[in-house]
Amino acid sequence: IPEYSLDRDCTTLSRHVLQQLQSFSPDAQDLSSIMNRIALAGKLIARRLSRAGLMTGALGLTGDTNVQGESVKKMDLYANDVFISVFKQSGLVCRLASEEMEKPYYIPENCPIGRYTLLYDPIDGSSNVDINLNVGSIFAIRQQQGEDSDGEAQDLLTDGSKQIAAGYILYGPATVLVYTIGKGVHSFFLDPSLGEFILAQENIQMPDHGSVYSANEGNFWQWEEQIRDYIRYVHRHEGYTGRYSGALVGDIHRILMQGGVFLYPGSVDNPDGKLRLLYETAPLAMIMEQAGGKASTGEQRIMDYIPSKLHQRTPAILGSRKDVDLVLSFINDKG
Ligand code: AHM
Ligand code: MG
């Protein structure tokens, strides 16, 4: 019995993107080649992560603090630079905006023709890196709207519907890439022997409800009473189980496959929570919605949220339709 069929074996990521667009138009070629470069970044990061513990100086802190006020890890910096280098000379991506860079990074030689911007979180869940637990990368592709003459990339301050593509790479026991271009959600496993991402599942639909709730309960007393009430509810009812890994991509992947809800609400000190819109919650919101799930700030669809700055944070409730609705019912019950 063959291990898996040759057809599936041959559905690589770039071929899949082209099939999705059903054309060999320049736009389809562009998107396929951008996805291919993201995949290359994923492979380079996966390789580094798998060897980092054996290398000298690959793990730990750089000693710097990023624009978010967080200590930068060497892997954050490596992964940030990997995305920049794979897009140099691509001719496609003119700007990259990341969690680790205060301002967008321009690749001037691409800018005359490259109208695409890559938004990304190079290493999501950095606290897991040094202890060899799962981490991820999150990405979204947007098209530049109008001229960006002042180099401030103001056109990125728009809602999530402007994302042409979004997804994430999960560096777990295997490396998995999940993406959408607005035509369903698809997952690919990295076959290390081929060096290719091979199609695993097409048109993933998440369950309407799942048993998992995923939140950092260490913040319990920082949350609004309504969120505390929701948590009390799941504690007191059968059929819920808590899972929180400290890496959003891993927690969301579990929820995508098995259902449930992830929440990072605002707190008394940080009403917008921790997670950033443009390269964390908006791409994941697009994935959730495309898979039949929901994504809310608690007040509105994450996809509708218009940021006022590049590193805008939003509270986030992401997951199965019924589970997100249950959280929202507590939030709306102001009494
Ligand atoms: P990072 O991108 O700097 O690693 O931050 C994002 C991470 C998410 O992956 C995770 O869900 C969250 O921050 C964990 O934060 P906390 O330790 O406050 O629970
Ligand atoms: Mg992050």
From TrEMBL:
In short, the EC number is: 3.1.3.11
Against Gene3D superfamilies, the record matches this protein to: 3.40.190.80, Fructose-1,6-Bisphosphatase, subunit A, domain 1
What pathway, per the record? Carbohydrate biosynthesis; Calvin cycle
PROSITE patterns reported in the protein's UniProt record = FBPASE (PS00124)
Single GO biological process annotation from the record:
fructose 1,6-bisphosphate metabolic process
Its annotated compartments are: Cytoplasm
According to the entry, every stretch annotated as the Fructose-1-6-bisphosphatase class I N-terminal domain falls at: 12-202
Q: Does the keyword Metal-binding apply?
A: yes
What residues bind substrate, as annotated? 124-127, 216, 244, 274
Supply the InterPro entries for this chain: FBPase_C_dom, FBPase_class-1, FBPase_N, FBPtase, Fructose_bisphosphatase_AS
Example GO CC term: the record gives: cytosol
Report residues binding Mg(2+) 2: 121, 124, 280
- UniProt-annotated binding residues for Mg(2+) 1: 99, 121, 123
This protein is called Fructose-1,6-bisphosphatase class 1
Q: What is the organism of origin for this protein?
A: Cyanobacterium stanieri (strain ATCC 29140 / PCC 7202)
Q: Gene that codes for this?
A: fbp
